[in-house]
Amino acid sequence: MSDAAIADIADVTPDATKAAIETEVRQIGKRARAAARALALAPAETKRRALDRAAELIRARAEDIAAANEKDMEFGRAKGLNDALLDRLKLTPERIEGIAAGVAATAALPDPVGRVLAEWDRPNGLHIERVATPLGVIGVIYESRPNVTADAGALCLKSGNAAILRGGSESLNSSAALVSCLADALEESGLSRDAVQMIPTRDRAAVGALLRLSEHVDVIVPRGGKSLIERVQTEARMPVFAHLEGLCHLYIHAAADPEKAAAIALNAKMRRVGICGAAETLLIDKAVAETLLPRIASSLSEAGCELRGDAAARRIVPAMAEAVEQDWFTEYLAPILSVRVVDGIDQAVAHVNHYGSHHTEAIVTEDQAAADRFLAECDSAIVMHNASTQFADGGEFGMGAEIGISTGRMHARGPVGAEQLCSFKYRVRGTGQTRP
Amino acid sequence: MSDAAIADIADVTPDATKAAIETEVRQIGKRARAAARALALAPAETKRRALDRAAELIRARAEDIAAANEKDMEFGRAKGLNDALLDRLKLTPERIEGIAAGVAATAALPDPVGRVLAEWDRPNGLHIERVATPLGVIGVIYESRPNVTADAGALCLKSGNAAILRGGSESLNSSAALVSCLADALEESGLSRDAVQMIPTRDRAAVGALLRLSEHVDVIVPRGGKSLIERVQTEARMPVFAHLEGLCHLYIHAAADPEKAAAIALNAKMRRVGICGAAETLLIDKAVAETLLPRIASSLSEAGCELRGDAAARRIVPAMAEAVEQDWFTEYLAPILSVRVVDGIDQAVAHVNHYGSHHTEAIVTEDQAAADRFLAECDSAIVMHNASTQFADGGEFGMGAEIGISTGRMHARGPVGAEQLCSFKYRVRGTGQTRP
């Protein structure tokens, strides 16, 4: 995704500067750890009030935030960012209001800390509870999207975690302005402003320093492209909630309802092409390709989608471009769709598990047994039957705000919201029991 | 803990041998990945039958297993293992029967895969389920305890995971004999014997190779001492379920019931001194130290426990040895207890969070508010009120067999049984929904 974010990882800083940055990042981590200990015990109402206040401050300081963003835009233009990246960086008044509304919505979520996740009694009278607790200190590394600064910061705080934020270097001023709103709101609410901090330098050495700081950082959440995430997974000395790309597949099974297939294909690809739940590859059973593919292809083409097919698909729709091996591995995030004709479920599942990113896959079929098999055998965070892959979203799941969709299998999988940013502990209550 | 296991991590192997081992470990991983894909879809009844058959085979081959163990004992004696380590390595007929019974008990557990952990409907008619799935391939690195080979292997299989086992090098033959029972049982049940494999070499380079194999190994479970685990956490290129030492604290609060305090102190330390739930440090409020400590100290001394106290404790019980700073950091796993007099809860919690290993802590008090504070503020996997720390055990929690007690905060915390060795996925069922 963000090449800028990827470049930020490389280390080309002089040793003396690196040492100074290492020291600074360590200090940030130390303060975050202390703040996290206190925040973990903060009452739900205090956290809610702090986040509400942060939303107010974002609204009240909208002009300052816009001015800070304009500095970032100048920097970005000078750096030669393309239009898509500049658009992602840009904060309009509407977008700033959207950010404030998002923080207020997070404030209104049920508090995830202290929930009793399970409880039971033992024959010896011990009462055991599994209780949700914060994770601790969360490091978030992300693209030059200022809104993520507020979204991620607010979610971390809601779940009782301290956050250390490192956005793409172009968003430094915008992020600083937003972090100030969160930190000031924390302070006004009697909490520590160190509970949300950002790395205040564009220097790429700071990322390496953060990834080594296992003493003070409990988990790293990277958002971005494959190479960023692989690099983080290699370098991080703490657990990583990987938010890999969404190389999502839509599989049209032989027993698909043609209307549903056509509607879902168009929606899954074209509703928004730049989100991680957008379909990138269409798999279609050869039994129905002859009848269904021309219709799906023409509606996609009319909507402005380029199709790249394998040989069998191109025999049916000769206007398609040729798909090469690399296409099956590609998250286009653009109006392009690769198309492959398959023999049936086995081949569809094998394709998904080989080429996919374990994010979201959907099958269209009226055959319940076929759907069950596809849902069971695709090794992905989200598997869907007769629904568009674009529903892969915390909000659509009813989970409130999300920090992203985790494609790993540990701890958090799928949409990562406030609940998923929690750990748990066991609380055991006795009346003097000793173990025989 | 096992110095041998720690030494196994160091790399002193010639490069050519290392390359050969790297290739071999990679082949093991590749086979494990293929086996895991199939095992993830195996019916509960098939897994149960395979584990029952494994228990039968362990019983039927008890003599062969004992003979293999005798080779390991010779190796261990030649290597100069101390009596405690030799005892841990030794398999008597009773212990072999215990291992078989453990595998049969795991077979009888409810199947953890496919459980619907949560489900809800969305206003647009989508039905969403969170469903338990296996994690994939689990690498287990552990001490020279042959029973762990069977316990860990059986738990991984029960939860639909393929296992790659690497025990301490002295247990190689015993482990191989036990793994054969599991693998043969899998094969007889129509499953792949590759679902449970061991690293068939004593060479330490194999551990490094396993830790780098992120492509085929989804999680590493290390069991052992602090240095082993820190090394694994540094080198592993995949998530780690750390099973750190159990530096457990017992805190006698000012409002403690004297009878409960005395009984729990004796049990928490002395019931079994070698398990991770044994208390290592006693904290006692100065308000009751004068009256309670002499009684607790004398019952512990009578039971053969050495006490090492701070200055305040030694003023009250002058027979105590002097505790030095290192004592507060030490998991004795022996009849030794460090004793510190504290001002109250704040100091007790600060001590626990600074010196502890985030495993298990207990408070003895009749003051519910004090108990609630201690339970909330101690950042440990298990926190107990008026109960012995020796209850920190999957079996005592009613969870069946466990692979250990995780001291990390990600994914699995506390006792790790079959359920904790699962991940989950979201299953979404629609009727043709597209996203507006």
UniProtKB/TrEMBL annotation, chains A, B:
Q: In this protein, which residues make up the domain named Aldehyde dehydrogenase?
A: 19-300, 330-398
- Name any Gene Ontology BP term: L-proline biosynthetic process
Give the molecular function GO annotations. glutamate-5-semialdehyde dehydrogenase activity; NADP binding
Supply the alphabetized keyword list. Answer: Amino-acid biosynthesis, Cytoplasm, NADP, Oxidoreductase, Proline biosynthesis
Asked if the record carries the keyword Amino-acid biosynthesis, the reply is yes
* Methyltransferase keyword on record: no
Q: What is its EC number?
A: 1.2.1.41
The main place the protein resides is cytoplasm
To which protein family does this belong? Belongs to the gamma-glutamyl phosphate reductase family.
The record's function comment reads: Catalyzes the NADPH-dependent reduction of L-glutamate 5-phosphate into L-glutamate 5-semialdehyde and phosphate. The product spontaneously undergoes cyclization to form 1-pyrroline-5-carboxylate.
The name this protein goes by in its record: Gamma-glutamyl phosphate reductase
